[in-house]
Give the backbone structure.
Amino acid sequence: MSTKNKNLDEISLSFIRRTEERKLRIGIVGMGYVGLPLAKAFITAGFRVVGFDIDASKVSQLQAGQTYIKHIPSEQIQEMNATGLFSATTNFSGLEVVDAILICVPTPLNEHRDPDLSYVEATTKVIVKHLQVGQLIALESTTYPGTSEEIMLPVLESSGLSAGRDFAIAYSPEREDPGNPDFGTATIPKIVGANTKAESAMACAMYRAIVSDVVEVSDLKTAEAVKLTENIFRAVNIALVNELKIVYSEMGIDVWEVIKAADTKPFGFMAFYPGPGLGGHCIPIDPFYLTWKAKEFGLNTRFIELAGEINSKMPEHVIMQMLMAMNDKLGLAMKNTKVLVIGMAYKKNVDDMRESPSLELVEILKKRGAEVSYYDPFIPVTPLIREYPTLAGMRSIDWTAEALKKFDVALIATDHCQVDYELLSRICR
Ligand SMILES: NC(=O)c1ccc[n+]([C@@H]2O[C@H](COP(=O)([O-])OP(=O)(O)OC[C@H]3O[C@@H](n4cnc5c(N)ncnc54)[C@H](O)[C@@H]3O)[C@@H](O)[C@H]2O)c1
């Protein structure tokens, strides 16, 4: 880390003082699962926050005190509005009057499963039109090492202003775990990386105001790599237990009992659990950001690709297990069988079905001729998802004894706590 220019050092001191005095104005671009809790955290700490989003319906809902994310109830949005510190807008000219701009826009994969940085690029192009001397720009979206420096910096510096001299740029990955009651924005340590001391000091001071622990790393690309490493670690370990589940079940061993017992070891083991596949915006996607970038260096990411292969085959494996059980226990084939899939969200107790393996399960069942319905208390209607256009508009059934009796088979894909499994088991008897 170098001290590139005195100018930003001076700006940095004033930025830090304004942070301590809660005078810093925060702009957050992208008011989704990451941006909205972040806005709440800054407002709770006493900062003025403007939320920017291109989705006019989200902005209207925020203005009306309504939520669109299950684990952030409407009352919390109303409390944010009542402080007088929060506003939401689709008008990006307001970027000119904030001190820090935090970017929380999507970073998906495109149809070729390569990084789609179009949202980050579009946001950067809007920011550069409004960029001011002394502003801090912090990317929070998950991405490959080099994004801030190679994709964002050239666009921002096309303004004639220079990073590390006139404005600051930092990377601070979001580690939000939606629906996890044990950890929220304030209690999860925050990684911060920047290329100069002054830029890092600005970003660290700002984040220290909302989180208990800030972990400073040496530069932008290291911070970008930290986030990918965390998600690659999960993807690889989930693949490992998925593979063990298949092997152990052939041997008549219960993988769940094995993991529970192994987890009593106080060191050197961390429990991961098998499932019907990977879901969510992060674990199935982020590792492939590194795979793509590694190719630039002539390197393959064999662990990541093997994990992807194992995890993506899990829905097919689950259906095969189900078919065998139907055949052996009920004498049923798949064609024309009435199947209820329980849980469309990618994990328990959330209303997010991005990349959910349930989508793949439903698609496979339909292809094999089953009559498929689903139940999910958090997803009344399935939205349009690019890879599964034919599943858009499916509606959750009502959870009643009459409705359940119509099905031959129930497949629990996501074990939401809110489901009355007792009723299901009474019907099955
Ligand atoms: N959801 C999570 O649990 C989670 C956890 C850690 C990291 N992340 C990462 O955080 C980033 C954001 O994820 P998310 O889950 O919040 O996504 P999201 O889809 O819930 O929210 C993104 C928001 O950005 C808005 N948006 C898109 N383009 C925009 C633009 N050009 N200008 C302004 N707003 C724009 C969208 O309308 C949406 O409201 C991603 O990189 C993701 O990988 C997500």
Residues 29-35, 52-55, 58, 104-107, 119, 122-123, 141-142, 174, 176, 178, 281-282 surround nicotinamide-adenine-dinucleotide (CB under 6 Å). The chain is about 40% helix and 10% strand. The mean pLDDT is 95.
